[in-house]
Every structure is written in C-alpha cells, then in structure tokens.
C-alpha cells in the first residue's frame, strides 16, 4: 500500500483515536491547555500510554521530566508510576509552569508533583545531588534540542537499574529534521543519539514513531 501524506495523517489520527484514550483528568488537562491557548507541543495520547506503560514496569517511585509545558506528559508519568509515585518536572517558561501547577492542584496531585522552574541545565545539578545516582525510574526529556547532549549526560546516571530513559523528537521537530545537520538542534540531537546507542550502561533503541523516540533501559 503506498504511504501517501494523507494516509500517514489518517493513520496518525487512527492511532490517537484507538490507542490514545485518556483517563478523564488527563483528557481534561489537554482540553484546558487548548482552551488556554498553550502551544500544541504536548505528546499525543498513545505516546502518553507508552510512557505510562514503561513507568508501570518499574518500581514506580520517581520520574524526572525536562519540559513540563501544561503538565500533560507529567500526568501520564504519574499515572504509570501508580499511587506511590512522584514526579519532578522542570520548566523554564513561567506561563507554562503557572498553568501546569494550577492543573496539578485542580486534579489533586500537587503533593506528588514537584515543578522546578528555570533552565534545565541550571536546575539539574541540584536535582541530581538531591536524588542521587540510580534513583529515578523514568527520565523523560522533551525540551530544547540544542541541549540534548547535556541533558543526556546530566540524567543518564540518575536512572535506576531496570529504569528507563526516554527522549522525544530524536529525528526532528516541526522546524528541523535529522537529515539537515546544519541546524544546531538536529546536530545536537544526532550527537546525543550516536552517543546514547554506544553507552554500555543501557540497552537502547530509537523508535520511528511520530518525530522519533529514544528508549533506553538501564542494565
Ligand atoms: C515540547 S514541550 C513539552 C511538552 C510536554 N512534555 C508534554 O508532552 O506535555 C517543551 C517544553 O520545554 C520547555 N523548555 C524549553 N527549553 C527549556 C529549558 N532550557 N529548560 C526548561 N524547560 C525548557 C518549554 O517552555 C516547553 O514548555
């Protein structure tokens, strides 16, 4: 069957319709974000379910996220970790952070989600010191692509044995793609991808789903 642009687009809609079903509070979060005019950069429902599925396969205690936006992926991570789970999430834009914190309060999960404001490169060292090595069940990286190699270096050792490191947009974004390495975001992502697959602390793959997702499991 030839894959036309229309067929890719219909398949994406089908995947979201069939596999992207959200619990009511997560559906409400997306609706609220749309109504508030937040950027439409959040992961889709079927990817949220994938994150939750990975989180559910761990000891279910702690996730660390870089790039909160409105809290959509944060809520999926918490959902997957289960009742004992906690998420630390980092966001540099105050309007996004304000929205997300209001959402965490509205859905009664604010006591289990800690939002750290600031540039991830600046706030990560303190978080790493607090949580310590091999303490995080899932790290999810979904922020500025130019910093991906730094984010990888700052978080890889925090992942617990059997835990996951998941990185979104490893093949591109709405503005750049991995076939053009003259773009600084693509070049940085390519550097990180090649480094990650050689890192013998992890079993790693790069999935060609949406804009690409790196999934690594700590040995
Ligand atoms: C793609 S969105 C995150 C979407 C979110 N993970 C979701 O799926 O619901 C990226 C977010 O990262 C934030 N961001 C960008 N650069 C950042 C940085 N250097 N430090 C912290 N956050 C950053 C942006 O403000 C934006 O809210």
Helix- and strand-based class? alpha/beta
In spatial order, strands of the major sheet run: 3-2-1-4-5-7-6
Bound small molecules, by name, code or SMILES, are: S-adenosylmethionine
CATH A-level architecture: 3-Layer(aba) Sandwich
Number of helices: 8
In what range is the share of β-strand residues?
15-25%
Low-confidence segments, ≥5 residues, pLDDT <50?
Answer: none
Q: Tell me the Rg in angstroms.
A: 17 Å
Work out the helicity level.
40-55%
CATH fold-level topology: Rossmann fold
- Name the CATH superfamily classification: Vaccinia Virus protein VP39
Distance between the termini: 39 Å
Listing every helix as H and every strand as E from the N terminus to the C terminus, the arrangement reads HHHEHEHEHEHEHEE
State the major sheet. Answer: 7 strands, mixed
Find the count of extended strands (DSSP E, 2+ residues). Answer: 7
Average residue pLDDT: 97
Shape: globular
Number of domains: 1
Short description:
The chain is α/β, with parallel strands linked by helices and 219 residues long. 44% of the residues lie in helices and 20% in strands.
Provide structural commentary.
The structure is a single chain. The chain is of the alpha/beta class and 219 residues long. It has one domain (5-218): Rossmann fold (3-Layer(aba) Sandwich), CATH 3.40.50. Helix content is 44%, strand content 20%. It contains eight helices and seven strands, in the order H-H-H-E-H-E-H-E-H-E-H-E-H-E-E. The protein has helices at 5-19, 24-36, 45-56, 72-81, 94-106, 120-131, 148-155, 184-197; strands at 62-66, 86-91, 113-117, 136-141, 159-168, 202-207, 213-218. A seven-stranded mixed β-sheet has the order 3-2-1-4-5-7-6, with helices on both faces. Strand 1 (62-66), helix 4 and strand 2 form a beta-alpha-beta unit. Helix 3 packs parallel to helix 4 and helix 6 (120-131) runs parallel beside helix 7 (148-155). The longest helix has 15 residues, at 5-19. The protein is globular and about 50 Å long. It starts with a helix and ends with a strand. The model has no long low-confidence stretch (mean pLDDT 97). It binds S-adenosylmethionine. S-adenosylmethionine binds next to helix 4 and strand 2.
């Amino acid at each position: 069957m030839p894959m036309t642009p229309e067929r890719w687009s219909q398949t994406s809609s089908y995947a979201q319709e069939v596999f992207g079903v959200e619990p009511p509070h997560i559906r409400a979060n997306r609706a609220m974000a749309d109504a508030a005019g937040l950027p439409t950069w959040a992961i889709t429902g079927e990817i949220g379910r994938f994150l939750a599925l990975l989180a559910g396969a761990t000891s279910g205690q702690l996730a660390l996220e870089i790039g909160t936006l409105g809290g959509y992926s944060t809520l999926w991570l918490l959902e997957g970790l289960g009742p004992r789970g906690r998420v630390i999430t980092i966001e540099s834009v105050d309007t996004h952070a304000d929205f997300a914190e209001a959402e965490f309060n509205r859905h009664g999960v604010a006591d289990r989600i800690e939002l750290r404001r600031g540039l991830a490169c600046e706030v990560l060292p303190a978080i790493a010191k607090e949580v310590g090595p091999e303490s995080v069940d899932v790290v999810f990286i979904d922020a500025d692509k130019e910093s991906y190699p730094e984010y990888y270096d700052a978080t890889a050792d925090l992942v617990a044995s059997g835990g996951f490191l998941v990185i979104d947009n490893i093949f591109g974004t709405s503005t750049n793609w991995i076939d053009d390495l003259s773009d600084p975001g693509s070049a940085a992502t390519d550097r990180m991808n090649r480094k990650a697959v050689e890192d013998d602390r992890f079993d790693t793959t790069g999935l060609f789903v949406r804009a690409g997702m790196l999934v690594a499991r700590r040995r």
